[in-house]
């Protein structure tokens, strides 16, 4: 909702600038055309930010760059760039060169292009680089935690499992044998859960293609699984892909455990603002599914990436489902949030407003 409100604000503000701040009279039919152009470029910037910025330079030749469309698309192009956006900076230089041939005041042209195009582009690229550095630090910290957990807990759980297995085959009275059996199962379960946690910390998901590989391996093992992906798949953040993989893995495991030999169904459904995922298996008569710790853990992990997960039984079918957003919400950090708010106010508010009242233009 906020994205649409921001787009409407940019369209309205740029139309007002074209009407009141443009030096030449504007024909009435040009305003709706201009609004459509701005809206189309804003929509394009959601999918192809670099292309939208390059295209926004063309109408900026008519208005001299005044408005919020150019800095907005420049900022988004910088955020989506990997490293220094040299090609986009070259496009800004070319834009300045064309403007210099048409404008009597070279200084104003250079200042306007730098403030409205080059500065937002470089700021976006800088913030994208900071995000990548934070992601790299987080990955390094995950590996450190995985190593510490493996060294501190893995060895002891392995010894506990070995000792419990040795007691299982020992000649003990029946009550003690039952207690040892439960102890051995708990030790093996704890070792398996620790292995799953360490695997998630060490190896980032390879994307939703890993879900398809998981289904393929299940079919190879003889599990009847039907995979439906509708419509064409898109990339999702690494955290969402990892949770989606674990959800499908848990769903297939539970289906094979509680309904062996029954057909399973995995569905990935893409919508404009969400990814819907479900794993369905029939419920055997007289065996209601239990709510285990694995399902609770998946629900918690889905919430950490901004999603929602759950399970239900309807019409004799057990359904494990999840809804994931297109982007993972970042934790709120005071200083970067303040810096970004200040930069947004300067680039998208103060500068265009000054152009509107004639201070800078």
TrEMBL record:
Keyword Zinc assigned: no
Enzyme Commission no: 2.7.13.3
Domain spans labelled Signal transduction histidine kinase subgroup 3 dimerisation and phosphoacceptor: 141-205
Keyword Phosphoprotein appears in the UniProt entry: yes
Keywords, comma-separated and alphabetical: ATP-binding, Kinase, Membrane, Nucleotide-binding, Phosphoprotein, Transferase, Transmembrane, Transmembrane helix, Two-component regulatory system
Catalysed reactions, semicolon-separated: ATP + protein L-histidine = ADP + protein N-phospho-L-histidine
Pfam family membership, one: HisKA_3
One GO CC annotation: membrane
Residues passing through the membrane, by range: 50-72, 84-101, 107-128, 341-360
GO molecular function, one term: protein dimerization activity
Name under which the protein is recorded: histidine kinase
Source organism (scientific name): Dactylosporangium matsuzakiense
């Amino acid at each position: 909702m906020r994205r649409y409100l921001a787009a409407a604000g940019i369209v309205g503000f740029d139309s007002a600038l074209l009407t009141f701040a443009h030096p030449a009279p504007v024909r009435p039919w040009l305003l709706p055309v201009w609004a459509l152009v701005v809206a189309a470029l804003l929509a394009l910037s959601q999918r192809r930010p670099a292309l939208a910025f390059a295209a926004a330079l063309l109408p900026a030749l008519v208005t001299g760059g005044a408005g919020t469309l150019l800095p907005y698309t420049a900022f988004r192009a910088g955020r989506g760039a990997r490293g220094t956006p040299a090609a986009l900076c070259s496009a800004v230089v070319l834009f300045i060169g064309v403007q210099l041939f048409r404008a009597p005041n070279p200084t104003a042209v250079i200042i306007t292009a730098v403030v409205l195009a080059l500065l937002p582009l470089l700021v976006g690229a800088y913030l994208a680089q900071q995000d990548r550095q934070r992601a790299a630090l987080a990955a390094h910290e995950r590996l450190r935690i995985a190593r510490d957990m493996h060294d501190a807990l893995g060895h002891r759980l392995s010894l506990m499992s070995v000792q419990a297995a040795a007691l299982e085959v020992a000649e003990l009275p029946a009550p003690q044998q039952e207690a040892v059996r439960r102890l051995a199962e708990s030790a093996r379960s704890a070792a398996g859960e620790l292995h799953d946690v360490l695997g998630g910390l060490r190896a980032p998901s390879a994307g939703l293609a890993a879900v398809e590989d998981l289904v393929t391996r299940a079919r190879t093992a003889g599990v009847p699984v039907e995979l439906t992906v509708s419509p064409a798949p898109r990339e999702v953040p690494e955290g969402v892909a990892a949770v989606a993989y674990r959800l499908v893995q848990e769903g297939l495991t539970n289906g094979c455990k509680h309904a062996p030999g029954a057909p399973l169904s995995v569905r990935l459904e893409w919508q404009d603002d969400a990814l819907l995922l479900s794993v369905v298996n029939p419920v055997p008569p007289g065996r209601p599914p239990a709510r285990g710790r694995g399902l609770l853990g998946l629900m918690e992990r889905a919430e950490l990436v901004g999603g929602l997960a759950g399970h239900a039984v309807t019409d004799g079918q057990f359904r494990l489902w999840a809804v994931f957003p297109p982007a993972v919400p970042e934790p709120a950090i005071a200083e970067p949030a303040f810096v970004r708010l200040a930069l947004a106010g300067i680039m998208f508010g103060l500068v265009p407003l000054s152009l509107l009242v004639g201070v800078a233009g």
